[in-house]
Amino acid sequence: MTTTDTTTLNATPPIKSAGSVAHHEGTPVALFQRVQQQFERAAEMLDLAPEVRKILARPACEISVTFPVRMDDGRFETFTGYRVQHNNALGPFKGGIRYHPDVSIDEVRALAAWMTTKCALVDIPFGGAKGGVQFDPSELSRPELERLTRRFIYALGNNIGPDYDVPAPDVGTDARTMAWIVDTYAATLPPQDRHRALAVVTGKPVSAGGSVGREKATGQGVVDLIALWAKDNNVSLSDLSYTVQGFGKVGFWAAHTLNKLGATLIAVEDITGAVRSTEGLNADALAEHVRQTGGVSGFPGAEAISHTEFFEVTADVFIPAAMENQVTAETAGLLNVRLVAEGANGPTTPEGDAVLRERGIEVLPDILCNAGGVIVSYFEWVQNRGGASWDAAEIDRRLQEILASAYQRVMSVSETKGVDRRTAAYAVALSRLEQVYEERGIFP
Ligand code: NAD
Fold first, then answer.
1. What whole-number distance in Å separates Cα of residue 138 and Cα of residue 145?
2. Domain 217-369, CATH 3.40.50.720 — does that match?
């Protein structure tokens, strides 16, 4: 199924249509181009082998499926979903599935490539992939979401699998979505093979084969990285103030964990608006408000602020945990923080990065800072395949060890080569990928 066509750098890869329609001509390629530029900067620094550059410049395989879903009122709607499998030199393809109105093939391509570098950087045996369906999940009922998920997974068929491509939650999907995926995938296997289905996705509910600690893992990892930075900068976490953009799975768990350590959450922005309290916001009470009302807006006791005011808040750390392209030249110029800890994938544009550098604002880059999720996904996959069950302390310890080691590698390259941490993180990842291609060679 996987094809590795490596002819031209910067060309748009072919789309494999496993469903009825594949129509991407004219789709903007801006986000994937940005990933390529990031690759190129690190590749130049490393003098990376040209064949490895060519391979990584294009995804190995792109799947587009269009499928019908029966809505609650009896109508049928068609939806288009993507799975982009960027690279599997280090292990099975791995990456989340996103449900969001802005999903595009370009975005999924970029997110898949970031997964390749993330897994290589933290040195876990996975490649990179991503999936997505373009629609607004808040507009569908739970039965509609379930039918859509099941049809999408059925349409992907054996393009995913425990040894081949292992999805996980991302924006707009959660543990419940993963449980539907396991059940649907199992139903496509012969009865005697169905026990294998559990490891087809990670991020499942613990009661349905998930791992303890997976739900909080990305937010926990963001906090582990902030703690390493704080130690290096003699900052006490109990004195730390911070702001969070996006109060979903990643934003909430980062805030919940930091608040438990005594840090003060000054402001939060999500799709419904932004709120501030100089006294500090209670992350758990805010999460309850979000559950009841759908967003942070209107949180009792907090002051409503504008998007600009949110970015202007004075704090030690800003955690973007929403979507791409939020820290732009303009918003980076507004920030009054010492550190941007990237919980989201691709939150900072190249122009935003330049402004952060000029202003001396430090960055913990996404492929390092949000890697906690895929690391604990790896633990879940290992437990599923070995019939094992690790406790919370074991998960936390192993997660911290892997993140601390990746952090040290990034800091060391950044210091010895005199490059920013994002370039250093890519350099560590690309060296790992180059090593495996050197050792294995390229068929035939
Ligand atoms: P989620 O769907 O649980 O939450 C997304 C949050 O972002 C919501 O609070 C939403 O209101 C907010 N949001 C969306 N658009 C916004 C906008 N324009 N301005 C402000 N807020 C906005 O998603 P998530 O799983 O928490 O993922 C958030 C980010 O973290 C994404 O970039 C995702 O790719 C990345 N990430 C997630 C994981 C994971 O394990 N879930 C792992 C690594 C990286």
1. 9
2. yes
